[in-house]
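Sample intake sheet
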Amino acid sequence: MVRALSESGLELPLVEVARLGYRREPVPGELLTRLLGALRDYGLRANRFTRPGRLVAEALGVTALEHADTWSLLIAAENRAQEAFSFAERVRFATQHLPAFSELLGQGGIPALDALRRGDEAGGQALLVVQVIEAPRRFSTPARLATLLDSLDLLYGACATLHGAQPNGLSVVGCDSGSDKTFELMGAAPVIAAVRDLIVSVWDRVVFFRALPAAQRYRQAAESLPVLDLVRERLEAGEMAPEQAELLRRRIVEGTGKFLVSGATIPELQERAYANPRTLMAPAPKLLSAPTG
């Protein structure tokens, strides 16, 4: 399914149609022709999906892209911008993040993972457990999960740079869905520890600024982290160039902001009982689906 979405080239024309629609600008016929061609290409490829691929497509909400009525809506309807943006988000989530989950079903019982889950550091690796807070009768959108994974990728990459490790060493190795969704991410043990400490320090600042409105609280928390002091110290000591220091600072602030709006927490925060993480770390409403039931 991921290959069908990628090779059909659907995401870019969907994004362009949405962008022009939101700006109330005319959509060129050439762009609509490209979009229609991409939709037809995806439809042909989707016809060859096996049952697992079909189930995944339905779960991610992209099955409608195979249907002619959806094509008509995206090509001709006045409200096509909103629909195009919604489908573009789903396509982006599938192509960027679904491959990370492709081997999860086959990883149960692997000794190294079992050791990591017991708290051991097998082969210099460690696990970070992240819980996605779910609201009653409201499910996460693909955009929310993409935001969370993007945030962790940014934070891990920044911490890896500070610890002299590979910035692309983070892997999703487990996912479980109960009342909340739980993700297990594996990476270099010192970097995982640094990310965990960073999230705890974010939490301490969210609590400190809890009287502020959410957007202001998150901004203050992201911009006052101890790890930013470490970046400044490295810069002043001549251990990194100004451009690298600024890039690291931006990645840390952006990753922290995305983590906060995604509404996630880690088990270590539950141990800090002076405030409820489910309340102060709740997701932005736009990242939840409409109420059900």
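Comment: The first strand starts at residue 125 and ends at 132. The beta strands are 125-132, 171-177, 181-188, 264-265.
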